[in-house]
Every structure is written in C-alpha cells, then in structure tokens.
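YM 10:42: Oligosaccharide repeat unit polymerase sequence, as discussed on the call
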Amino acid sequence: MVTLLDLAGLAFCGLTWLSPLCWNAWRGRLLLLHPIGFFPLMMVYMVIPPLVSKFQGESLLLTAQRFDPEWFLVGPLFILGLTGLFYHLGVKLAGVPLSLGPEERVDSYREFKTRDGVSPLAFLLVSLVVFAGLLGGRLAEPYTGMHVSLGFWWLHILFKSSQLLPLLVFQQDRRKGLWMLLVVMPALLLLRSKAAFLYIPLAFFLFYQEKLFKISKFLTLTMVGMISLTPLAVYLYTVDFAREMRPDVLANPEVPTWSESLERITHREYAFESFAIVYHTEDRLYLGEKTYYNLLLCLPSAIFRDKPVTFYDFPSQYLALDYHAYEMHYAQHLLTPFYQDFGVLGDCLGLMAMGLLYGLSYRGALRATFRRRETWPLLVYLCLALNSKYLTESKLFNSLVDSLGLACGVLLVVGLSSLFRRQIKETVVTGARAAAPLGSKPGWAMGNGGKSRG
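YM 10:58: structure's back
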C-alpha cells in the first residue's frame, strides 16, 4: 500500500516540478512548448505508474519485490523533487522567465508559414519526396544483427522525422497538410510504428493546444482516431518483435496474446522503479563512467568497433529477475546515469544542465521564429520537446540522438523548399527584367515603384 511518506514525496515532486506551470495556467497563460511545460509533466508522470502499482500491492518489476516496499520509493521521490528546483534554476540561467507575461503569449506564431515565400503545392511536393526517401530507406534498411552495429540504425532515427511532416505541411497550408497526414498515417501503421501513432497527435497538440479543434475539426477527429488505433500498432509491433526475438512464436502464432501486446503500451513505465533499484543497490560512484558509456552508444560500431558496451549491462546487473537476453534496451530513468556517476549531486547538476538545454533551445527558436516570421525554428525545437517522455525513460544520449534525427528531417524539408523558393524568385526577376521597356530603371522589374535599391 502507498504510505504517507510516498504521498509526501509525490507532493514534493509536484510542488517543485509543476508549480511554475500551474501558476501560469491559473493566470490563463498555459504554454506546453515552454521549458516549464511538457517536460516537467513527464517527469512527474513517470512516478505515477509505480505508485499505482504499489497501491495495488504489486510492483512493475519483479526485482523490486526484493526490497522493503514501505521505503522503496521514498528516497527516489525526494531526490526527484530536489532536482526539480535545479531544473528550473537552469531554465532561469538560460534567460527564460518562469512567469509568462502578456507579451510572451506567443499565439501569434501560429499565423506564420513554415517557410515564407514557398507555394503550398511546392512545399507539399518537397515533403512527399522527402517522405518517399525516408520510407525507401526504412524499407530497405537491414535493421537486424550486424547491420545495426554498422550504422544503419541512423536510417531508423532519420525515418522518425516523418512524424513531423504532416505538421510542417499543415502549418504551410491546412488543406495540403491534411493530404500529407492521410499519406503518412497509413504508411506508419503498416510499418507497425507505435511511437509515430502517438507522436503525430502529440506534435499537433503541443503546437496548437486547445485551439486545435477551432483550427480544424476534421484534424482533431483524425488525431483521436490515430490514438484509438495505437493499440493495433502496438499489437503488430509486438508480434513482429516476438517473432524476431523468440523462435518459439513461429510454432505458436497465438503468442503473444492480445492482452500481452496491449500491456506493452506501458512497457517503459517501470523506469522510475529501475532508478529506485539502483538507488537501493548502488554502493560506489563511477565518476563519469556511466555518462561516458551513454555517449559511446551514439557511435556506430563501424566507427568504434571496440566500444565496451552491450545491451545487457544494465538489466543483468540491476534487474536480475526481469532480465531476458533479448537485444533490446531496458528503460533507465533520466536520473540513473547521473546518480551512478556522482550521486545526488550528479542528479542535481545533470537536471540543471537539462534546464539550460531546454531554455537556450526554446529562447533561440522563439527569437528566430519572430525575426524570420517563419515557424520552422520553433518546429525544430519541437523535436526536443516532443521527445520529453522518451528522455525520462531512456538513455540520455539515445533520446538526444532521436531528437537530432527528427530535426534533420525538418531541416531537410526546409532546406529543399528554400532552394526551390530561390529558383522561383530568380525566374520571376529574370522574366520581369526581360519584359521591362528599354531605358527603364532597374527598380521597375522589382515592383518598387521605379525606385532602384541601388
């Protein structure tokens, strides 16, 4: 059962992580894209499933049953609450105010185009070409065994940027964006992409928030439909995964069952419990070794063939009763590598660094958006905000690499459309100059009333 100390720890986490968000929401200035928005929500959300499981008299991990249930989550909860103070300190150090003023209600950014000066049809065609390339790379990707270690994993990371293509096109033109959505959505379902089916609606919601229904009722209903189809994508993904990792499934197609597949929706919700296990079993500091370990995971083995990392280090050491030798990443809470390296101080400094990262990224993206009067800089920042939950439940650098893959896809579409826009401008200017009467001033062709910019 949940104890009073557990509830006190949860209240402390909510107070330190969600106070700025709740204060601004009370004043009618809710902005989930802000560094005080979605990421703090996910940090607090990750402690809810273990507490619910404890309330039911169970635990999400079998290994957690070895420890005293009364004190198992208390220490980690108060550490998480303490890091919330340092996270918001990092946001403040980045120059981002925690209290939103009237001038910081950035609803006006929704009025900008993704890329100014590009026709919606041209932008749609560029996005379709990019999506076709990403899809071709994903279908041809040898995503098993040796090929993953040789670097083809990056094709999978880059393909994830297709989750943002409907939003990119929709911000350029609403009708064309719906067309793009109807192209991308079936492809992601056929590829059994469970994450994409949640990330596409989440991207639209984070960007438009409560105004999504006012902007497009059809789009809102489509988002609800995608969320409803997510269990089907999870089921397809799980059956495929089990057939690759468990040969016995070939003899018994009924394994895994439908209920087992649906349970995989919450397959990373045990991350905070895994941190609690580390908290109760760790008896020495690695002094940077685990952070270095996470960094090496980003390097393909083709570059660094002798990197001393495997899939099995963390689960075999800490999750003994839950460990199965499948080639998969076991969830680690964001606090885990910092705690393993430098203890509670490492968690505080690590989360302050995350506050700096979110704050500087948001501040730069917002300034660039209003300076250029285009939304693509804010959409690049959205790649980081969109991965907030994955950041809390995965290896730190894996999540950052995923965000980089999303951003690369956005920048690829923006870059190609920019080249197309410059070509159009040159064609228009050349044609106007050719049609200009002899002896006219150069400014005539530019349409500025005959005044040369000279």
